[in-house]
Structures are given as C-alpha cells and as structure tokens.
Amino acid sequence: MAPGRGGIAAAVALLPRRQAATRAAAGAQPPGSVVRVPWALRVRLQRGAQRRQRGQGEAAAAARPGKLLLRSRRPELSQPHWQTVGRWERPPLVSAGWKHRKARGDYFQLEPSQEAAPALEAPPPEARQGPSFAEMGLQPALLAGLARLSVSRPTAVQRLAIPALRRGRSALCAAETGSGKTLAYLLPLLDGLLSRPAEPLADAAGPASPRGLVVLPSRELAAQVGAVAAALCRPAGLQVRGLTGGGAAGGLRRQLRAPPPGAAVLLGTPGALRAALRWRFLALGRLRWMVLDEADALMDESFAEPLEEILAHAPLAAGAPGPAGPGEARTQVVVVGATFPTGLSEMLEKFTDVGRFVTLTTQHLHRLPPHVQQKFVRLKGQDKLPELLQLLKEGPASGRTVLIFCNSASTVNWLGYILDDHKIKHLRLQGQMSAAARAGIFASFQKGDVSVLVCTDLASRGLDTSSVQLVVNYDFPETLQDYLHRVGRVGRVGSKGPGAVVSFVTHRWDVDLVRKIETAARKKSGLPGMDSSINKPTPKGG
C-alpha cells in the first residue's frame, strides 16, 4: 500500500533530523547549527563502539595467547602480559565502577611476571656478573662476617651503593622493599671505620661516644639491624650497642655502659637517643657516619622533633669542626628507605647541604613487585571477617605464615579477640602496647612459634619477614607508600617463595587508590606521586 501524501511529507521532514543526528554522532555538524543528539541514541552508539572494541581485543587475545598480566572476574577486562598500554592512554579498569554498591563481590588479580625478586636479577651483560663483595674492596674481616650470615652474592642495591658510599659521600639510598638495603649501608660504613682506627677516649667514664649511629623508627627494627651489625662487627673486633626507650634514665645509662665498653656503633630509636643526649649519657662529637633508616617513618609527627634534636648534636654543618678537627671531613649522612616524604629535604637542609648528596636509586623503585601475586577484592565491611577466616583456615592447614594488617591499634585488638573465639593461634603487634608487652613478639613470630601475626603498619617498615607467604590487608592502606611497604613483606631476598597479597577494598576512598594501582599495573609503570622532594632542594632564600 502506497503511503499517503501526508506520510511522505512527514518522512521527508524527519529525514534531515536523522541525517543531522548521524552527522553529529560521526563528529560532523552542519555550519551555523547546533545539533542535540538524543541521549538514548548516544548511549546506543557508545555501547556499539564498546562491543566492537571488546571484539577486537578478544580476537587479538585469541590470536596471541600467553600469560596474563591482570586476571579479572570479567574476562573481557583481563590484560595479557604482552599487551602494552601507552603512557597517555586510559585503559579500561576493573575498578572503574567499584564505588557503586553493585560492584561488591568483584575482584581482579595481578599475576606474577617473573619468579625471582628484582633485587636478585643478574646485572646487564655488559657488566658481566657484577663485582663480588671481595672485588668491591671490603675489609677481610667484613667478608668473614658475611660468611657468618651466609651471604655470598650482592644484590642490585648493594652493587650500586657499596662502591659509592665507600667514597665517603653523603647519599640518599632509595630501593624497593626487601632488596638488601641494610647490608648496602652497613658494609661500606663499617669498612670506613676499620680503615680509620679510632683514638682511645680520654675519659672512659664519660658519655658514650660512638663513631657510627643508625637511627631507626622501632625497637623491633633496631634489634634486627643490631643482630646483622653484630655478626659483621664480631670478626673485626668492633662493638655494637642498641639503645631503645620505654624505661627510666637509669635504663638508658645501663644500656650505654653495659660491657664491653666503648661501642663503635650505636643503633637507637629517636626518643631514646634524644633522652640520652639530654641527660648527657651520649655525645656525638666523634661521629663519623650517621644513617637514617626507613626515612618516611622517621618523618612521622612523633619522631620529627627528636630527630631534629639528634641532627643538631651531630657535626654535620659545613663550618663546624669535624670529628678530628677543623680539617676533617664532615660526618657522612646516609638516608635510606623505599619511599621518602616530601618534608625530608627541608629538615636536612637545616643541618647539612642536601645539594651535595648523591642519589642512589634502583631500577624497580616505586614499582609494584613483579614476582608477587596481588589480589584486590571489593567487599562490604561486614563481609571482611568471613573472608579472612576462610583464608586463615586455608593458611595454617598448609603451613603458610600470614601477616594481617589493620589501620589502627583498636582494630588489631578487636580482630585478635575474634580470632581467639575461633581458636586461631596468633600474635598481635601495635604501637600502643607497652615496651614490655612488645618485647619479643616479632622475634617469636620470626622463629615460627606462631604462624599468624595481626599488626599495624609498625610491622611494615624494614622488618625481615622472609618467612611470610601471605599478606592480608584487612584494612586497605591509607596511602600508596603504605601499600608498597606492606606488599614488600613477601617475596623478599631470602624468601623461599614469592608469596601473595590479598587486599579487602571496602571504602570509596580505598577505590581511588586501587584505581591508581591498577592503572600503574596495566601501564607497567611506577606508582604516581612517589618521587621525593629531596632531589629538588628548596632554593636558597625561598
């Protein structure tokens, strides 16, 4: 049946609108007119484009099978390892819609791309096998100490830092977690002490006057580094002393004067060191070198003032007399960490010339560990506990050692009571515990007496957790720096396996961080906003 004259006129009138909509969807507009594309048509066109893109991606994936870089519950959002995302591209994210309540239950997983930790990778071919500890020129006594520690091959950061620090320059040493930074700074600095024997003290009964000082943020880390330093120093005849707070002045005096007297190396926490300086149990006039380990933790509000007071007592300023007189070199300062806070350079500039520091950084700094499996699960807050209990029931049965991170001491205590109710043997570690309560907890966990440790970020900085095989972020970390430190508790140098990390994502602000992590993983780039301002000192007079 032929259309009537009115129907033809209506069709002719409608045709320009459809043509205009088609031109607008294609990106072309007639001159002098504004075309508004209906919302339903725009959505339909976008969905069609997305289906075509997914089809192309699936076809490419089918043509080039291989390992996955990112595995998603939705296969169309998985990314094969060979696929490269450009620097300025915006890849499709699994976590893009995770702020909506319907996303609960979704997850994705970063798959390991290599077996060994980056710190253990062989040097480039042009460097052959890289220098050994003996070829670096270290004292024979230190080589004997390394043998006691069963360390035979230097890691990447050690190959980088030891030759540079042996030249006596102050330095910023930045490397990924678990890469062997402790030996990287201890070996060259102890070598310097051995090459320049100390003159005997004029007053043996006076304050302790160490030639080396290591400042650390926690008593657990001080005990761990102290054990490594003692093993290195014993064949060399150097004495090491630890100084931690939590007691009265008499306790500090006993720690400093305990036999054998005249310790050359002192390791301490900021609060204990400041108290010893104020009571004149400690003097830093003979200091040859100073290490600030885990620098981002030392810049916490609770440590900032004590740290400044310690720096003020050390002979760091360019015009001050050195340890052996006006012509002597200044105290060598080494700042060590996996991440660095923005205010660090401003603090150091008050006491030393930061512009003269040499910067030592490894290739994998601020990158996600490529050998550790990392899983992110979007959950409701009330679902975290059942999920954790399921993981723990699988863990101890298989002999896995588990580290559970919470963001507050109160959550650590509450979660501990829940685990007690479920007959799950565990230990707790958080900063609000008394010194007596904290003593020995982490050492017991390291020995394997208990396979589950519930803790705050107190256990995420520097501690040797080579026995840990699973990290659970019960509370998602508050910053990307905290995430890097927590994930660095597994897959360390000396670990038996790469380990795995499971993170529970519950809050909207957690999703913001997860999106940054997922984007960095897809682009195979470093995490954003991690560069330290120490590389850009504040201009003079600014």
Number of helices: 17
Name of the CATH architecture of the largest domain: 3-Layer(aba) Sandwich
Strand order of the largest sheet: 2-1-3-11-16-15-12-14-13
- Total strand count, please? 16
Structural class based on helices, strands and sheet pairing = alpha/beta
CATH fold category name of the largest domain: Rossmann fold
Inertia-based shape: globular
What is the CA-CA span between the terminal residues? Answer: 86 Å
- What oligomerization state is this entry in? single chain
CATH superfamily of the largest domain: P-loop containing nucleotide triphosphate hydrolases
Largest sheet: 9 strands, mixed
The Cα radius of gyration reads 29 Å
Number of domains: 2
Q: Average the pLDDT over all residues and give the rounded result.
A: 84
- Broad CATH class of the largest domain: Alpha Beta
Low-confidence spans? 7-15, 60-64, 318-328, 536-542
- Helical residue percent band: 25-40%
Strand content: 5-15%
Describe what this molecule looks like in 3D.
It is a single chain. The protein has 542 residues and is of the alpha/beta class. It has two domains: 94-117 and 369-523, P-loop containing nucleotide triphosphate hydrolases (Rossmann fold); 128-366, 3-Layer(aba) Sandwich (Rossmann fold), CATH 3.40.50. 37% of the residues lie in helices and 13% in strands. The protein is built from 17 helices and 16 strands. The strands form two sheets. The protein has a nine-stranded mixed β-sheet with strand order 2-1-3-11-16-15-12-14-13, with helices on both faces. Strands 6-7-5-8-9-4-10 form a seven-stranded parallel β-sheet. Helix 7 links the parallel strand 6 (240-243) and strand 7. Helix 4 packs parallel to helix 5 (181-195).
